Amino acid sequence: MKPRFASVALNVPAGSDTYSYKIVDDISDDMLIGRRAVVMLGNRLMEGYIVDITDHADIEEDKIKPVEALLDKEPIFTKAMLELAFWMKEQYLCPLGAALACMLPPGVKARIQKMIVLLNEADVIDNTKSLIINALRDNKGRMALNALKKVVPVKNISSVLAELERDGVIAYEYTVKESVRIKDSYNEAAVSGSISTVRPVQQQLQAITAINKAVDEGEGAFLLHGVTGSGKTEVYLQAIQHAMDIGKDAIVLVPEISLTPQMVALFTARFGSSVAVWHSRLSMGEKYAQWWRIKNGQAQVVVGARSAVFAPVQRLGLIVLDEEQESSYKSDMTPKYDAREVAKRRCDIEAGVLVLGSATPSLETYYAAGKGDMRLLVMPDRINGKPLPHVDIVDMRQEIAYGNKSIFSRKLLKAVAYNLKAGQQSILFMNRRGFSTFVSCRNCGLVMKCPHCDISLVYHSDKGQLQCHYCGYKIAVPKVCPKCKSPYIRYFGAGTQRIEHDVKQIFPHARVVRMDTDTVTKKNAHRDILRLVWRHEVDILVGTQMIAKGLDFPEVTLVGVVAADTALNIPDFRSAEDTFQLVTQVAGRAGRAAKPGMVIVQTYQPEHYSLQAAVKHDYESFYRQEIEIRERLKYPPFSNIVKISLSGKHLPDIIKAAEDMAGELHCYLNNMCYNNDVEILGPSPAPMEKIKDEYRWQIILKVDVHIMDDIKYDIKRMVDRYSCASMDINPYSML
Ligand code: ADP
Ligand code: ZN
Ligand code: ZN
C-alpha cells in the first residue's frame, strides 16, 4: 500500500498550519479527514485535527512520526466546517488549529495519557525493568512499575523505550479522558413543542415568505429591519418552522445578555425537545451534552450566544442573528472572529440562509444591504399598533441658565416624582461605562474634539491636557470656550453611583436599586435585581447599558437618560451610532404593556443628529447623516480598521515598542507605495491607559478596503515580532 500522511492542525500559537504524521492504520481517507488525533509534537503529546490526507510528506519521510492514536469513532468536523476553519485562519490571521479548537466546546478536548504496556510480565527481567524505570522520568510511572502493574503511564519517549518497543518487550496505548463526564440529564419528555397559533400580520407575512423561499432554494441573506415590537421573533419562529418542515436545521444567535429564561421558554414552547440551548452559564458537562445532541441530530434548533454559530447542525437551513449590531458578536479572544461574518460564510458554504435582525442595524450591515449584498426586509409598525413611546429631549444648557446645577433637570425630577406617587416604576440610565473624561461647555454645549479624527478629546487631569486617543493630538485645556467664550467649561463626570446617591437624597422614601458591572459581579446578582424590579419591589432602577437590552418590564413607564453626552462623547468613531442605538433601545423598554411610556433624554447637545433622529424614531435619517461622516473621514464601512494594542507593566518599554512599531509600519508602507491607502494614527495611549497595573498603548490603521488582503499578513508578521503587541481587525469597540 502507498504510504499516507495526515496533515494535522494543532492549537499552538505560532508555527505552521499543519504538521505531517504517518498513517499506519488501514482506515479510509473519509474516516480520517476531520478526525481528532493524538500526535507527538517535540516530545509532547497533543490533540490535533486531521485536515487532509496526502501521499507525500513535506519533510523527509523517516523523520515523520506516526499518528499515535485516533479519537472518537468518526470525524468530528465535517468538510464544511474544515472549510470554514480555513477561511477563519485567513480572515482573522489565527492558527488553523485555533480556529478548529474554538468550534468545539471546552468539554470536547481530550486529556491524553500515554501508557506503556508490558507485553509479558514474566519476561520482564530485572535488568529490563530497571531500564524502563530509568527511562521513566516521573514517579507515578516508576511506582506503578515497581508494583508490577501491567500498564504504566509515561510522559516522554526515550531511545531506550523505543528500543524496547522494537524488541517487543513493551507496547504503547493511550487512555483518553474527555474532560467531562456527561450526565444525560436532559429530560426530553418534559417539553413538547406546539404549532404556532399566531397569525402573522402583513409585514411579517412578507418577511416570512421571502425567507422561506430562500430556505427552499438554499441561498440568500436578509436584513430584517423592524422597529422594537414589530414582531421579529415571530418571523424567526415561523421561518425556522418552515426549515424544519423541509428537514433542515436552524441556528439562532442572540446577545448573551438577552438569552433570558423567557427567551428560551419561547423557543422551547414552539419547538420542544428539538431545541438545544447554548450559553456561557451552562456547565462544561451541559455544553458537552448539548453539543453531542446537536451533532447526533437530536436537536434541530440551536439557540445560543456567539459561539453557537459553530453548532454542529447537520443540514443547515438558516442562521438568524438577532440584534445584529451588538458588540458581543465579536470575540475578543483569539481567534477574534465576528459571528456575523462567520455566519455569512457558513451559510455560503452549507447552502444556508442568513437573517440579520435589528431595530437599529449597524452602519456596516445597512450599507451592505444598500449595495445589494443582502436583501432588506422592513417592518415599520408595531404589532399592536401602539405608537412608539414619546421621547423628550431636555436641553441641559437651559437648566444651567435657570440656575439648576443638579444632574437632574426639572422635567425629569417632576416625572420621577409623579411616577412615585402613581406607584409606577422608573429607570434612570447612564451610558455603559463611567467614561466621563471629556470636556464640554455648559453654556453652549461645545465638546472639545480632535480636529483630525472627529472623536472627543480625553481629559488628563494630571497634565491639565486634552488628548486624542486615536492620533495623539494634544492641547492644554482652554480657559474659556473657543466658541462662545464662556468660562463655564468643565469636564464631565457623573457615574451611576453619583446618580444613585443623588436620587436617594432627593427621594428619601423611594426604593432605589443600582445595576451596573460593580453590583452584578456576584453570581445571580443580575437575576436578583431583575426579580426585584419584576415584583415591583423597586421604585427606581439606576443602571448602565445592561438594563437597556432585551428586558421587558411591564410596570416601567418612565426612562430617563441622565446624560446622553457621555455616550455621544466616548472617544470612538462609533459613538454617534452607539447613542442612537442606546436611545432607541431604552425607548423600546418604556411602556411595553398597557400603560403608555415616556422617555426623557438629558443632553447639552440637543441638536445632535443622532439624538434628533432617535427622538423621531427615524433610522433612515440617522443613517444618511452618519454614513456621510464615515465616508468623509474614512471610517468603516469605507475602510478597515486595524487596532494594534501594546500592553505591559513598564510604561517606557511599551511606548518605545509602540514608537518602533509605528516607525516600521511607516517604512513598510513607504516601500510598498501604500501611503495613500493606509493612514497610521498614533501611537497614543489607549482611552483607558492603565488597567490592572498594565499600561496600554495603541496604533490604529485605517486601511483602504481594497488593499486589506494585500498587507494584512505583513502587518501581522510585524506585530508578532513584539511580544507585548496584538492586533484586531475591525474591532467593534475601540476602547
Ligand atoms: P420585536 O422582537 O420585533 O421587538 P417581538 O417579537 O417582541 O418584537 O413582538 C412584540 C409582541 O408582539 C410580542 O409580545 C409578540 O408575542 C407579539 N406578536 C408578534 N407577532 C404577532 C402576531 N402576528 N399577532 C399577535 N401578536 C404578535
Ligand atoms: Zn461655549
Ligand atoms: Zn485625532
From TrEMBL:
Task: Tell me how the cofactor is bound.
Answer: Binds 2 zinc ions per subunit.
As cofactor, the record names: Zn(2+)
Residues annotated as binding Zn(2+) 2 are C450, C453, C468, C471
Q: Which residues form the Helicase ATP-binding domain?
A: 213-379
According to UniProt, the reaction catalysed is:
Couples ATP hydrolysis with the unwinding of duplex DNA by translocating in the 3'-5' direction; ATP + H2O = ADP + phosphate + H(+)
In this chain, Zn(2+) 1 is annotated as bound at C441, C444, C481, C484
Per the UniProt record, one Pfam family is: PriA_3primeBD
One GO term (biological process): DNA recombination
Q: Keywords assigned by UniProt?
A: ATP-binding, DNA replication, DNA-binding, Helicase, Hydrolase, Isomerase, Metal-binding, Nucleotide-binding, Primosome, Zinc
EC main class here is isomerase
- Which SUPFAM superfamilies does this UniProt record tie to the protein? P-loop containing nucleoside triphosphate hydrolases
All copies of domain Helicase C-terminal, residue ranges: 476-641
A molecular function (GO) term: DNA binding
Which InterPro entries does this UniProt record tie to the protein? DEAD/DEAH_box_helicase_dom, Helicase_ATP-bd, Helicase_C-like, P-loop_NTPase, PriA, PriA_3primeBD, PriA_3primeBD_sf, PriA_C
Role summary: Initiates the restart of stalled replication forks, which reloads the replicative helicase on sites other than the origin of replication. Recognizes and binds to abandoned replication forks and remodels them to uncover a helicase loading site. Promotes assembly of the primosome at these replication forks.
Subunit and partners: Component of the replication restart primosome.
User: What family does the entry list?
Assistant: Belongs to the helicase family. PriA subfamily.
Name listed for the protein in its UniProt record: Replication restart protein PriA
**Where does this protein come from, organism-wise?**
Mahella australiensis (strain DSM 15567 / CIP 107919 / 50-1 BON)
Originating gene: priA
